[in-house]
Amino acid sequence: MASHLLGDTATLTGRSLRHILRSPDTIITTAIMPIAMMLLFVYVFGGAIDTGAVKYVNYLLPGILLITIASGVAYTSFRLFMDLKSGIFERFQSLPIARSGVLWGHVLTSLVANLISLVIVVGVALIMGFRTGAGIGAWLAVAGMLILFTLAVTWLAVIAGLSAKSVDGASAFSYPLIFLPFLSSAFVPTDTMPAVVRAFAENQPVTSIVNTIRDLFAQQPIGNDIWIALAWCVGLLVLAYAGANALYRRKIS
User: Fold this and answer.
1) Do residues 237 and 152 make contact, with C-beta atoms less than 8 angstroms apart?
2) Which of 29, 30, 27 is nearest to 19 (CA)?
3) DSSP secondary-structure letter at 40?
């Protein structure tokens, strides 16, 4: 049964990836907006933001990486919605394939596409002056954190894709995710914010994830941020996975 699920998931993931290869503009579009924001903040606003001895591009990059992922998962919701409307789900139900393989195919496609977009964004950041002395272990920890965050928000995108009533609705769910880093430590230190905004910023998931990645790149002690970030990502992943599968079962029943 497990090999059946793995084989079907691999086949369906290959199908979704071929769709992306035929229209690579989705990956390019996903990377362009975060890169444009990075250029804007570093070269226009960065000089007015005090981040101490830390170069602003180094300070900014973790938040930009999360925005890249938030932009990318919107396409997962969109592709899932289009599959539903095209009737391909009914076709899949008539075939002897693992039901959950359909969702996993979209999720793994999102993971691959987002990783490619993240590599592009990091490459541009290096050109803009981003530097880190992080070793292989720290880079693997950053990659692990970004993969966990991608899986968590992708399963949220699956819920949005399954429950949306229109294409616009399926794509628009990512707007709050893209906006959330602006109310965190991603762009400015939280101690410069008004008390109410600061309280929200310091207790929402993006801040702990951003702080963890920033400290890993800077080779600084991580403290409790990594445990808070992991708790947010794992908790969100479990809830979104359960919600998406429950919704999917109702859709195909």
Assistant:
1) yes
2) 27
3) H
